[in-house]
Amino acid sequence: MARARSEERRADILRATLEVIAERGYRGATLGAVAERAGLTQQGLLHYFPTKEALLLAVLEERDQWDTGGRSDGRRGWRLDLLGSLVEYNAMRPGIVQTFSALLGESVTESHPAREFFTRRYTQVRAEMTEVLRSEFGDRLPSGLTPEQTAPLLTAVLDGLQYQWLLDPESVDMPAAFRDFLTLLRAEEHGTEPPGGTGSPG
Asked: Is 158 helix (H, G, I), strand (E, B) or coil?
């Protein structure tokens, strides 16, 4: 019974954290603000999550659980066309994207508490993107690259666009830019014209 109450309290805290992030962004998600929203003292919150990094990592892990639909193997079961929908969905939750991107940037330093999470996550995501690409294209993309070669590039575009969008959302249309990248992936090796192209002059 005590364990069930503890898990319920942790779930309440994570929901409160998501609400605070949505309202105030990454920097505004202080332990004090979350504790107040969850109806706890800051000391009470620290009983469940000893640092802000631990709390925010738990939120990101919870987000991944939602994105996988609770599958026991942690896989999302994405298709290439559904990745565009994910990008559109992320564009509607900037606070979570900001939290993810801020912790990702910090995690590259030695001994950062988020380093193991992101290292493990990228290993999984590259494997998932390989599966997505193989399902769409088989063993070779139109460019001639294999799904294994392309998966890190696809992953880099997904996360790299988020940084550009967060810095300048008025100039970077993240969903549209990702759709353009999918057009590149599907282009024939010897030059399918981009939409609206007129070909060589003369």
From this structure: helix
